[in-house]
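Hi support team,

I submitted a single chain yesterday and got back a structure, but I'm not sure I'm reading the token output correctly. Could someone confirm the output below corresponds to the sequence I sent? I've pasted both exactly as they appear in my results page.

Thanks,
R.
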Amino acid sequence: PIDRARRHQLVVNIWHELKNIPYDAINSSVVWKGGNIYQTGNPNLKAPSMSSMMTVLSLFNNKLTFTGVANHRKNEIHYIEATDPDNKDMIISKPVNYEGETLNFGFGTEINLRLFKIWATKIRAWLSVEKENAKISGIQYDGWNSRTSFLFNNSVNITKSFGFTLKAFFEPTFTTYDRK
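Hi R., thanks for writing in. Yes, this is the structure output for that exact sequence:
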């Protein structure tokens, strides 16, 4: 709380996460995915990691909230497909680590309103920007992407055991590393 009445709060979280590598990503067994495509693991993968910081400012007993997030990701895992060097009719799918890192910054605001005793509304808008700096299959990705989303949520509780929710969510298409 940042005031005596505890109506306003400021929260700061900082963490580092070392993620697990899925077993099938390091297992050297062959898994057939179709007539001419198979997947095999990569025992040389590094564990993906992410360092994050999140700040939340909540005002007027959560009626208005501002959020900021920063993420730094390294060693992300991606599957690449290539022609099998031993059999040109076969395609091999194999996991690799991105060579590089990704920075992500997100900013959002949320408004919570109680229009009537039985009706609550939440409106949220979010914008994030991402800095790509990675090499995948020999291709260098070095650019900025943005992502937006909007939420409009209505909740009506007519009695303690009966009510309904009407939600609308909009997120335009975005690309990351040339993928949608």
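A quick pointer for reading it: The first helix runs from residue 23 to 26. Let us know if anything else looks off.

Best,
Support desk
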